[in-house]
Amino acid sequence: EISAQLAKVPGPGRSEAVLLRRVRMLGPLDLQPLRWRLRWSWWARRIARHAGAGTDVLFVNTQSCALLLGGVMQTIPTVLSVDATGRQFERLGYWGPPDRISRVAARPGEALERRAFGRATLVMAWTDWVAESLRYDYGLPPERIAVLHPGVDPAPFASIERKPPEGGRPLRLPLPPGPGYRWRRP
């Protein structure tokens, strides 16, 4: 008896893509990660407001789409799905090597993230690693966090022969092209 309506934030058009590009000469002061996340959140807010009054619950995939949903989340119960927090991205050097300047540049995004986590009815962490960051880096109480590991039932694949890649090289998985995806060698 559930009626679900799915909405997808559209990818950036040409003009948006230009505005979202990195300005390398600014280094960490570029704020490209924040601009990128605000763009997705702005679109998510438009979609959520359009859904409006008839919506009983929102499920938002990633906090990047929830940064500007504060008012909406105060009126509609919201489950926020998180695969990694901004602090974790920062520690991993996802946006570049962390330094003093990048830490200061990350603060506005972190404040918006903290607000989104605080206003969500429930934050669904994909892993225990994310749940720990939500508790310790963002101060979210454990009762507001649910860990739900997305995955696949391995049983149907048990009979498939597993061969290591030729030449002893590590197994590689291709990443989809698009903004936000960047391959880094381990």
Helix and strand composition category: alpha/beta
Strand content: 5-15%
Main sheet record: 4 strands, parallel
Taken in chain order, the helices and strands follow as HHEHEHHEHE
Arithmetic mean of pLDDT:
82
Backbone CA Rg? 19 Å
What is the terminal-to-terminal distance? Answer: 46 Å
The counted number of beta strands is 4
List low-pLDDT spans: 178-186
Number of helices: 6
What is the helical fraction, as a range of percent? 25-40%
Strand arrangement across the biggest beta sheet: 1-2-3-4
What's the overall geometry?
globular
Give a short summary of the structure.
The protein is of the alpha/beta class. It has helices at residues 14-20, 32-51, 70-75, 86-91, 100-119, 128-136; strands at residues 58-61, 78-82, 122-125, 145-147. It has a four-stranded parallel β-sheet, with helices on one face.
Protein model, in words:
- This protein has 186 residues and is of the alpha/beta class.
- The chain has helices at residues 14-20, 32-51, 70-75, 86-91, 100-119, 128-136; strands at 58-61, 78-82, 122-125, 145-147.
- α3 (70-75) links the parallel β1 (58-61) and β2 (78-82).
- It is globular.
